[in-house]
Design brief:
116 residues, alpha+beta, five-stranded antiparallel sheet, 16% helix, 34% strand, signal
Amino acid sequence: MKKSAVALSIALLLSLPVYAANNIGQCVYPKTKVGANGNLVFKHPIYVLDAPNATAQKRALTAFAAFTVKAEAPGGFVKLVTVPNYDLPNPNSVAGKVIGWAKLSDFDQQDLRNCN
C-alpha cells in the first residue's frame, strides 16, 4: 500500500509539467503595477504583433483587459483573443476577436473564473 501511494505521488508530480506546458485556453492579463497616482500602469510597454515574430508590424497594447490564449508559436509568442464582456447585454458579442500576437512573458496567468 505504501509503495503504491509513493508511486502514485511520483506519477502525479511528473505529470504536472506536462499539463502546464500548454497555454492554449488559459486566461492572461497584462503585467501591471500601481502608478504614482494610484492607477494601474503597465510594468513596461506591451506590444501586439501581426505575426509571431519580432520583425512583424507591432502596436502598443492599451487595454487593461483579460485575454484568452488561442495559439502558441515558437519564441514565446501567444495569439490573444478577447473574452466576453459581461457589462454588455450580449456578453459574447465581443468575445473571440483576435487581438494579435504577444510575448507570454508580458502577461500574468489568471484563473479562468476571473477571465472577464
